[in-house]
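Self-study notes.
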Amino acid sequence: MNTLKGKTIVITGASKGIGRAVALQVAAAGANLALMARSEQELQDVKKMAAAHHGHCLVFAGDVADEAFVNNTMEATVKKFGRVDIVINNAGFGVFKPSEEISATEWDNVFATNVKGTFLVTNAAIPYMKKNKSGHIINIASDVAKRVFAGGSLYCASKYAQDAYSMAIRKELRPFNIKVSVVYSGLVDSSFHSDPEGHGSHNWWLKNEDMANAIIYMASQPAHVVIDELMIHPLAQEY
């Protein structure tokens, strides 16, 4: 993981769950961090924990679906650290109910975060990565980008869209030595679910640290190696 020392890493959805776990691990590896999430207080808490690991950290509270916020964040990150090496698009949420019960507003909000947010943050980083002729976009999708389930029409559709976007830009960016990877996760004991993190029903699920280990493994590969896709589940979960 010392290959991440001195790298500048942008993480969305960094205030809790998977994003926070990744942030703390890469801070310990000596990376520079730009953390994005909605909650200022939770971001400040992560920043304090990162500082305990001697990590250099900027925090930006806002909405990844807000183009001005995203662009200003990327500009401030590059101004501070000189470059952006890795973007981890982790921000996301879901609404789960029969399709006819989903409102147009719920549809728009899920797509705004899960798809538009990934698009905006990636687009903001691409010019800097092209200039450096290197970079890595890691999009945190879900195994439902490859399958569907009843009650998941909205969330599944958003993750299929995020995955299709990732596959297309992978072809666009490879000639510029920019990697694009997607992580497809199964059940993770995070704040994403209706039951709180640490709930007894999650005992056999993946932990946030398991996801962080997988993401960091992808990010730590040599320049000539790219892991395009990684599917990860708890052993007890059927796929």
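Second protein, same conventions, sequence then structure:
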Amino acid sequence: MDKWLGLDSKFYKWGTLLGDLIIITILWLICSIPVITIGASTTALYYVTTRQLSNREGYVSRDFLKSFKSNFLQATAVTLLIMLIGGILFININYFEPTSTVNTIIYLIQYVILYELVIFTVYVFPVLSRFELKTGELIKTAFFMANRHLLTTFTCLILLFAVCAVLIRWGILIIVCAGAYGILTSLMFMNLFRKYVPDMDKDRPEDMV
């Protein structure tokens, strides 16, 4: 019986993982409701999932809320910047009609900027969750990593589209979607981050509070 139900059993470990994914997803959904807080919520999600992959002990809800609070202002500022640029691009792409060669070039540039904005968004909150950077440095670092590590970038985008497709087909899975996406992409992000900071798995001073 202990083989199946003991604390070291695979059943217990998978059950714990499923429970954590549900808690993370619920917290992410609740904290993202105001919309402008989705960046802080996503940062907190990655803070929890990357800690789990580093085998750090902790409480999911406590760690999530701690990160949400400590990164709230910076993450929200970045979120508002993304929304502003995204809104401008949406208007330009949908209502701007290229009528000349110059206008066509400008129109295509909008898509290039949109692409950069999307891949930047994929990276900026995971980076914020693990690195202490000023906003300017955070933006530069996220852009740099997103364009340098294209395999990771495109894999994360494919996973995001896959999660959306699954939710369209099986909406009930919304209860674990954010946590599952977070843990899967964190596997890639942590491997990437360790290339820049080999001691990434060690606790920072604020992690031990």
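Instructor comment on the second fold: The chain has nine helices and no strands.
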